[in-house]
């Protein structure tokens, strides 16, 4: 295996001060990644040093913010929690929700992280996977007499003690989507078990669209959909180190990402500090020791794990997208200031609408959290119907918020000269002359705000704000299916019958 189980490349990822366990700092997190032997490829070449690569580093900075904020007293209520396993203070991103208050704090934490980074901060998927696997393995053990929950709790204790970033991985490439996993011409279109050994399993396949994979110490794998008996080889859940033999990561391209490679790039990046990323993670005959296996062919429980994870992750979007939306609304308001129209009635109305839409998303995230209930395992699950309503809104409202921001910014957002032109001795004065906005405003500041709006609506941050809003945690139809299942139409029919004094004995057609 290259490194023993639970070693994470042998990196010591926790320190103690005066006998009290503390979490990693931002700097310790970054240094821990340097010691991993990650196999990362981008544009046909292996990246030997992902930590300092100019395209990847902004996404790492976003994750590092989760460590930085957890160290600050003013944010510790949201950013930290008390472990139900050890009783120690841990980063909330590694926490198992113990009550509805924890679910609410999760959403508030995600909004805060979005406000601080204006990008995807990449730890939500792992947190949501922890909670879905925690309750599902408990139910499996109760029915089947397995020890998956015990294994998972031991694994999670290690994650909490070492304050790790874990990439929750669910989505498979899927190949021909009209065919089940076992019917695919190429079995690797869904990650699957190829061999079961006395000491573990061997898996092949890939996980696609993996948020923050390159910035993670571990990958935590889940099945991608409900399974039938013929698909049991694909019903698998496990954890593995990111630098384990047989794992490679192919970094995903993003709009405007190569701007980060330009010498002295700053203004044109829009957000020169933070970002997000996705990767295709390939598993080529990877061995997983038994203590890290949490599902092995128990196909009846694949759907439960998927449904619970999807619910948690759809809840997450009521926080993270709202935080980024806060930044976008602020940028649009600044653009109006620079354009000299902050008092125009139509501008005020557009900003009001943006705030209304953003707070609607937040309200959904808080609502599904406040209505959370305990599972048999003791951790809390959000209200699944409201979580799916939350995500259904997220597939729509951020697009309107972005449209309004572009409307307020004006066409100059996408036709503006480059930063190099502004810095040029000959062209600079010309750019400053013709890009001047309202009297007393600075041209460079105006350009920075416009590029930030471009970054969030069209550039690298748009991947996490717009496109992920559409397809992350399941594309729109997935939520509509769950809303239909959870909507309890029969109970609503009965409410109407009682109010209208309907005599059901007179109805003879099913469904009426």
Automatic annotation (TrEMBL):
Domain of life: Bacteria
Leader sequence residues: none
SUPFAM superfamilies reported in the protein's UniProt record: Acyl-CoA dehydrogenase C-terminal domain-like, Acyl-CoA dehydrogenase NM domain-like
Record has Membrane as a keyword: no
Record key words, sorted: FAD, Flavoprotein, Isomerase, Oxidoreductase
Domain spans labelled HpaB/PvcC/4-BUDH C-terminal: 302-500
Molecular-function annotations in GO: isomerase activity; oxidoreductase activity, acting on the CH-CH group of donors
Residue ranges annotated for the HpaB/PvcC/4-BUDH N-terminal domain, each copy included: 25-295
Positions with a binding annotation for FAD: 211
Keyword Oxidoreductase: yes
Name of the protein: Gamma-aminobutyrate metabolism dehydratase/isomerase
Organism annotation: Porphyromonas endodontalis (strain ATCC 35406 / DSM 24491 / JCM 8526 / CCUG 16442 / BCRC 14492 / NCTC 13058 / HG 370)
Organismal lineage: Bacteria, Pseudomonadati, Bacteroidota, Bacteroidia, Bacteroidales
């Amino acid at each position: 295996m290259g490194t023993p189980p639970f070693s994470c490349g042998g990196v010591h990822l926790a320190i103690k001060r005066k006998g009290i366990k503390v979490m990693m700092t931002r700097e310790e997190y970054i240094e821990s990644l340097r010691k991993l032997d990650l196999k990362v490829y981008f544009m046909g070449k292996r990246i030997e040093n992902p930590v300092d690569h100019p395209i990847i580093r902004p996404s790492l900075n976003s994750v590092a913010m989760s460590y930085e904020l957890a160290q600050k007293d003013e944010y510790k209520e949201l950013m930290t929690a008390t472990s139900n396993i050890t009783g120690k203070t841990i980063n909330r991103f590694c926490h198992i929700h113990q009550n509805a208050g924890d679910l609410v704090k999760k959403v508030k934490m995600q909004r805060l992280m979005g406000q601080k980074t204006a990008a995807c901060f990449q730890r939500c998927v792992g947190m949501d996977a922890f909670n879905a696997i925690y309750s599902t393995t408990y139910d499996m053990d109760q029915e089947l007499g397995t020890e998956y929950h015990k294994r998972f709790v031991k694994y999670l204790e290690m994650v909490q003690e070492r304050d790790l970033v874990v990439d929750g991985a669910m989505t498979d490439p899927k190949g021909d989507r009209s065919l089940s996993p076992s019917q695919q011409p190429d079995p690797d279109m869904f990650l699957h078990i190829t061999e079961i050994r006395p000491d573990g399993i061997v898996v092949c396949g890939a996980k696609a669209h993996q948020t923050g994979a390159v910035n993670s110490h571990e990958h935590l794998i889940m099945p991608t959909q409900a399974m039938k008996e013929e698909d049991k080889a694909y019903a698998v859940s496990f954890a593995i180190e990111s630098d384990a033999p047989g794992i490679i990561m192919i970094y995903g391209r993003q709009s405007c990402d190569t701007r980060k490679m330009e010498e002295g790039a700053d203004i044109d990046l829009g957000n020169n500090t933070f970002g997000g990323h996705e990767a295709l993670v390939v598993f080529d005959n990877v061995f997983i020791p038994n203590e890290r296996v949490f599902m092995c062919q128990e196909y009846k429980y694949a759907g439960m794990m998927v449904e619970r994870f999807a619910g948690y992750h759809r809840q997450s979007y009521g926080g993270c997208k709202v935080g980024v939306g806060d930044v976008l609304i602020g940028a649009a308001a600044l653009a109006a200031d620079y354009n000299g129209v902050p008092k125009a009635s139509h501008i005020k109305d557009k900003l009001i609408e943006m705030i209304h839409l953003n707070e609607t998303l937040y309200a959904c995230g808080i609502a599904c959290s406040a209505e959370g209930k305990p599972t048999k395992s003791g951790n809390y699950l959000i209200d699944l119907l409201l979580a799916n309503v939350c995500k259904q809104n997220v597939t729509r409202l951020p697009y309107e918020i972005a449209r309004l921001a572009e409307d307020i910014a004006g066409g100059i957002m996408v036709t503006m000269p480059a930063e190099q032109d502004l810095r040029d001795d000959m062209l600079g004065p010309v750019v400053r002359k013709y890009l001047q906005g309202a009297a007393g405003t600075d041209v460079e500041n105006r350009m920075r705000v416009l590029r930030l709006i471009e970054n969030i609506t069209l550039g690298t941050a748009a991947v996490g704000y717009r496109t992920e809003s559409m397809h992350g945690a399941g594309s729109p139809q997935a939520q509509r299916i769950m809303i239909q299942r959870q909507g309890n139409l029969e109970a609503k029919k009965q409410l109407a019958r009682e109010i209208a004094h309907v005599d059901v004995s007179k109805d003879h057609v099913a469904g009426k």
